[in-house]
Amino acid sequence: MNVQVRGKNIEVTPALKEYAEKRLSKLEKYLPKIDVVHVTLLVEGDLHKTEVTIPVAGYLLRGEEESPDMYSSIDLVVDKLERQAKKYKEKLYARFKNNKNIAAGEQSAETTPEPDNEIKIVKSKRFAIKPMSPEEAAMQMELLGHSFFVFTNADTEEINVVYKRRDGKYGLIEPEV
């Protein structure tokens, strides 16, 4: 496993890098084929934040944690990633064992913003979209801890969105031209 550690507003000491590598090596028992792990250590005021991204077979395991101590932040994010890795492995096992399908739900209703509230985009992300099934997209969404996931449907080759409904089931939004 290649652990790439970089720092923002902090100098990454050999001891800090070694600690991160040692703690992240715990994940190899759940995900033995991890090639690279991206770790970003940053200091914002009094908080020490650790961000870790692990690409695994087309999916992303990602965790962020912050605390007053960098070593504690690393411990917290490794614990979070360990839970994600267990969940990923269990879902992968269950999917291949039972071959369960996620039912596509109805489309979510569009809501109109109130006229006196200004819409402001505060963060923008870019990411590569990999063709996958809606079931794989739902699993990726759960691993990331998000309420929706944008992906390219492998069957239709169109951009789709899978989302978690209030009743705990999953919905699929497909474009209609």
UniProtKB/TrEMBL annotation:
Q: For this UniProt entry, what is the primary localization, expressed as one broad class?
A: cytoplasm
Q: Which UniProt keywords apply?
A: Cytoplasm, Translation regulation
Localization, per the record, is: Cytoplasm
Q: What InterPro entries does the database record attribute to this sequence?
A: HPF/YfiA_ribosome-assoc, HPF_long/plastid, RHF-like, RHF/RaiA, Ribosom_S30AE_C, Ribosom_S30AE_C_sf
Q: Which residues form the Sigma 54 modulation/S30EA ribosomal protein C-terminal domain?
A: 118-172
- Per the record, a Pfam family? Ribosom_S30AE_C
Q: What does this protein do?
A: Required for dimerization of active 70S ribosomes into 100S ribosomes in stationary phase; 100S ribosomes are translationally inactive and sometimes present during exponential growth.
Q: Indicate the quaternary assembly.
A: Interacts with 100S ribosomes.
Q: Which family is annotated?
A: Belongs to the HPF/YfiA ribosome-associated protein family. Long HPF subfamily.
Give the protein name, as stated in the record. Ribosome hibernation promoting factor
